[in-house]
Write a structure and sequence with these properties.
- By secondary structure, the protein is of the alpha+beta class.
- It has one domain: Thiol Ester Dehydrase, Chain A (Roll), CATH 3.10.129.
- The protein is built from 5 helices and 6 strands.
- It is globular.
- It starts with a helix and ends with a strand.
- InterPro entries: HotDog_dom_sf, PAAI_dom, Thioestr_dom.
- This is Hotdog fold thioesterase.
- One of its GO terms (molecular function) is 1,4-dihydroxy-2-naphthoyl-CoA thioesterase activity.
- Pfam families: 4HBT (PF03061).
Length: 169
């Protein structure tokens, strides 16, 4: 490694909690109870949230908001936030908007996520919000839509999702 490469090297350290704790507790609560408990620090945040430094800002029935302040570790090789970060934020917000409406014992998984990128995110953008809103609360399939916006409301991406529901027996 050259001296120049060594001077540009970055280090980032973070931790996360045992993910089986949340999975066990989550099965005993309604979606809104579980998500609010997570926000209040009663249950561990998903490890991916710590990996991306993403926060669940608010949740209400049918709506969830996540935030990120773009950092260099979010960047792709061309100097902007990687599209996968956009997708993870939107998948989280849209799926949690659906999750917030689910009764005790109902699970779900993303079947489809469609994302439209409007403009790049960079460190200069500042804090952005991924806002997910329920569109259709079906019995076996639910849909949601969402947007990534900055604090002034400027649009960076929008998306739709379809989630398969696994109702309790």
């Amino acid at each position: 490694m050259t001296t120049e490469q060594n001077e540009t090297q970055r280090t980032r350290t973070y931790s996360w909690e045992d993910q089986t704790i949340g999975a066990k507790v989550g099965a005993t609560l309604s979606g809104i109870e579980y998500l609010k408990g997570m926000m209040d620090g009663l249950y561990p945040a998903p490890a991916i949230a710590n990996t991306l430094d993403m926060r669940l800002e608010s949740v209400e029935e049918g709506k969830a908001i996540f935030s990120i302040v773009p950092q260099e570790f979010h960047y792709n090789p061309i100097g902007a936030v990687h599209g996968g970060v956009f997708c993870t934020m939107l998948d989280s917000a849209l799926a949690c908007a659906i999750h917030s409406t689910l009764p005790i014992g109902t699970g779900y998984t993303t079947l489809e996520l469609k994302v439209n990128f409007i403009r790049p995110l960079t460190i200069k953008t500042g804090k952005v919000l991924a806002i997910g809103t329920l569109v259709h609360p079906g019995r076996s399939v639910a849909t949601a839509e969402g947007r990534i916006v900055d604090e002034q409301g400027k649009l960076y991406a929008h998306a739709t999702t379809t989630c398969m529901l696994f109702p309790s027996k």
